[in-house]
Amino acid sequence: MVRNWTLGIMADKETEEVPGTILLIPKSSQQQPLGFPEVVDAEPEKKRTADGAFILDPQPDENPNDPLNWAQWRRDAALLCLGWHCLVGGGQTPILAAGFPDVAKDYGVSTADVALTTGLYMLGMGIGCMIASPTAIIYGKRPVYLAGVVLFLGASIWSAASPNYASLVIARIIMGIGVSPCEALPSATIAEIFFLHERAYRIGIYTLLLLGGKNLIPLVSAVIIQSLGWRWVFWIVAIVVGFNLALLFVFVPETFWDRTPKPKNRSRPSLLQRASSSIFNRSRPQSIRSVSRVVKVNEADEKERIAKEEQFSEQVKAKLDEKRVAFRTDSNENEEASAANAGTVPQTPAARSGAATPVVTYTGGQATPARTPNANERNFYDPETTKPDDHTPHTFRSSLRVWNGVLRNESWWKVFMRPVILFAYPAVLWSTVVYSLSVGWLIVLSESVAHVYQHHPYNFTALQTGLVYLSPFVGGIIGTAVAGKASDVVVRFMSRRNGGIYEPEFRLVMALPVAISTALGLMGFGWSVEERNNFWVPTIFFGVISFGCSLGSTTSITFAVDSYRQYAGEALVTLNFSKNVFHGMVFSLFFNSWLERDGSKTVFIALGVIQLGCLAFTIPLYVYGKRLRMWTVRKGMMERW
């Protein structure tokens, strides 16, 4: 009988085997099969961390070329190089925030027109995400990363040399397309090179660098704008991006690894093997491990099971011996005699026809190839079943290949449509909303910073306006540290309370501090500006907003990836497309005029209410999330594509 509740999470009515639900913390030294009615000895013990505290998910292959088997420094180097590039790319959204008046003066347009370039840049990012994801899934992430950096480099030079406003707009759109892999792919890369128990902390680092760029780059650009002019911002960006191209080329190899389960024996079992396995599996008691409970055999049953297994194993061996004798037909007896006189080993009919039969032993009730036979047994040996995989480590030179061939034989257009289909998956939809709000509020603030601080009563210069971003930068660092470590602590605590079983909904507990801090920061920022408080007051609230946004972005990405790891790449496209287009671009069309018309208090209190209203849906998702995950499996919407 399926339990109805697990720490407030409703279980599915029919099954407990739901995607995303895994055994994270073992209860004993013996690891039992998870989720299927397997015999106790049928499944080998799963690999764990060095201290045995966590079961590794996903399970790494024995091949040293599996990215999960790379040296720790190599995996962290790839993460940091990508993170640094994401910091530079993420900072391109508000890079002109302190210089809006200067750009407007040079081109003879309004400040609102210059702010629109930010929204159009985000439109380019949204388009780029939709292109980058299917291309990366089919051809690999490495060529997409490198192509994006090259496009980013070219667009930076174009922006610096733009002769008019229209040219700058086009350059910013193309720049958005080039930067888009920074947001669409790294989370999927993290899921490919780090285990589940390592993932939240690493995603936190990535989020810190991505959002840190949105807070730190405007500070640096403000210094450049005041000393050298706004065009030099893009010239310096071009130099840095050229350096990033070298970093990614050297330290970020292709991370794709096919984890599709592969059968150990590709030849079809013989009739005797299938019959014996069927009889044995019916005759022995089974120990069933489901996601929420374990039905263990008692000691007496275990002894009886072992005795039956030994007895049955002897019977099967006897039957195999009889089968070998039966192979020797009357027509072969003469051949045996002549072969014996010649001192050679006779061939069986199976060997003459080219169909080899493997030597079989019985472990756990299943027939598996046991060893390479000696010369007298070679008639019953199938070399295909024991052919070793190529475990030769790849050389450093081979890892520098830009393109590794087609990784998946799928239609590009079908893969292109998958992020759209994921809007129908409740876990991804929630993550999309929270991520869009978390990153979107920082972008909205970047468009309003010049309006707030460079006018009465503050009258800041471009440099002083840039220094304001120190507050959200510090808030983002604290938020990322809390999101990564605190989330992992919460997950481990709740998993232990749940018998070692991890549910992705455990991540949703972090939605409470996300809602409170972000809403409080938005309302406090708008209220203090309207009341003309000392500049420190709205600046501190800016940091509180960044703290909440860092929590929200890390939580949403981790929840989406943990719920549907097989769709991590597509899910990140869904998140980033929504953030760039539905939030960033749309808000840039009307936000500044709304702010001028209704005032900061009304506008930012409304934003806080929107934040609280959207986060309120976390409660039903926590309760019914597991059932909804199973509902998506039954519908099979993604499988049709």
From TrEMBL:
One of its GO terms (molecular function) is transmembrane transporter activity. It holds the Pfam family MFS_1. Its main location: membrane. It is a multi-pass membrane protein. Residues 78-626 form the Major facilitator superfamily (MFS) profile domain. Gene3D superfamilies: MFS general substrate transporter like domains, Multidrug resistance protein D. One of its GO terms (cellular component) is plasma membrane. It is found in: Membrane. The chain crosses the membrane at residues 77-100, 120-139, 144-161, 173-196, 203-226, 232-252, 420-446, 466-487, 508-529, 535-561, 573-591, 603-625. Residues 329-394 are annotated as: Disordered. This is MFS general substrate transporter. It comes from Ascobolus immersus RN42.
